[in-house]
Write a structure and sequence with these properties.
The protein is of the alpha+beta class. The protein has 2 domains: about 30 residues, no CATH class; about 100 residues. The protein contains 3 helices and 2 strands; from the N terminus they run ββααα. Strands 1-2 form a two-stranded antiparallel ribbon. It is elongated. The N and C termini lie close together (about 5 Å).
Length: about 130
């Protein structure tokens, strides 16, 4: 992953009216992140948000949180669609009881693998030294 860095150095010598010479040196640096790196960061950010929400769901189910509470219902509602493809593979979660939700664990693993694959897909046609 490359960041393009450009350094500009300027040196000036001036003579004051009293005959003294002054040297001034200024250095400016600018860096620019490549579009591929920005796209990869966006992919990992989205995956991180999704995985964090699912992890909160997992902890709430593990601790047997009351689904009647607003926050718990909000998290279950948001993550329900994200975990839905994996529900039933290892059994159904039981709300309100201590439950180890394998569906959430599997969802986190699968979404992480998808994010990794998408991030790698962006670098397929890039030369080795730019990655």
């Amino acid at each position: 992953m490359t960041e393009i860095e450009q350094t500009t150095e300027v040196q000036e010598t001036t003579t004051r009216p009293d005959g003294a010479r002054m040297q001034q040196r200024s250095v400016s640096r600018t860096s620019q992140t490549s579009g591929v790196v920005i796209a990869q960061r966006i992919i990992w950010f989205i995956a991180g948000v999704i995985n964090t929400l699912i992890a909160i769901r997992f902890v709430l189910l593990l601790l047997g949180a009351n689904q009647g509470a607003g926050f718990v219902d909000f998290i279950y509602g948001i993550t329900g669609a994200l975990v839905a493809p994996f529900v039933g593979i290892f059994g159904q979660p039981v709300y309100g009881q201590f439950t180890f939700d394998w569906s959430s664990v599997l969802a986190i693993v699968v979404y992480s693998l998808i994010a990794w694959g998408l991030a790698k897909l962006l670098t397929l046609n890039r030369p080795k030294e730019e990655i």
